[in-house]
Design a protein that fits this description.
elongated; 5 strands; 11 helices
Length: 325
Amino acid sequence: MSQKTRPGGYYSKAALCELLGISRNGYYKHEERETEFGILVTSVVMYCRWVRLDDHLPKSGCRELLILCREYFGDKFKIGRDRFYDVLRANGMMLRQKQYRPRTTDSRHHFHIYEDLLNTTPKFVAKACGQMAVADITYVRYRGGFLYLSLLTDCYSRYIIGWCLSLTLETEGPLQALQMGLAFYRSHRIDIKGLIHHSDRGIQYASFKYTGLLKANKIRISMTQCGDPLHNAMAERVNNTVKNEWPYAYENLGFEESIRAVGNAIMMYNTARPHSALDMRTPLQVLTGIRYNPLLTPTEADLTQMSLEGSSPLADGFPPSVLHS
């Protein structure tokens, strides 16, 4: 009795192909495609884990990872959106949303509250860099308690042009961020004639020292007229992104270490994180037109780190660059 007909026996691949009406060549091609797809999936998971390292984009969402994978793997990336999400889900890489908004605004003061030039009818929309910048303050936990992060963002490019991490909520923090932002515009030769500076009504932004610097540079001053964070929505979103997408264990860091960690987070935000409002480009790409992204040009050391972070039996011997043209 032959192997393919004996009781308790098994069918050979040739017999199964004949039974199912497919050629052996077709079967082996399918098997090769499955193997290639398995290698691709493993490489994608390794790359995504590398992207989410603490000093890269540790809280990058599925959409950002999909865009980065498409650019990194190029034509070799044959995974659709839904299947890509399934891969992330199967590897425990879906993120849980955390909602929290700190309150750092003290509007109980006697300084002048300037007119709101953003939330008009129709709403003001920046058409180029240097037309509007938004400012806000958030807090960061660290080993000694709390630090206060002042951010200044160009509305058109979403580029964080100025920032300062301070020990207190005094005006000096926002003032240093503003000085950095003005220096940024000058160094990039961006015309700020008619620039609008929009912020909340906090005492830091309404102070004589802060508004004096704005007036000295002929910058138009705009402030929210109520406590609704939606009236300074872009600045709130930037705060949330910088604070929550890079989950450094800030509470375990000292002041100087926290400054370095926040600085790296802002650098990655500006140069590596795709933004949906920018057609999934980075602020740097919008600002300069240069398609540079540090996460799309990993070094040999980075590739080694990817392999160590995302190693699995299927991935052994196949670094993520194996499918990168």
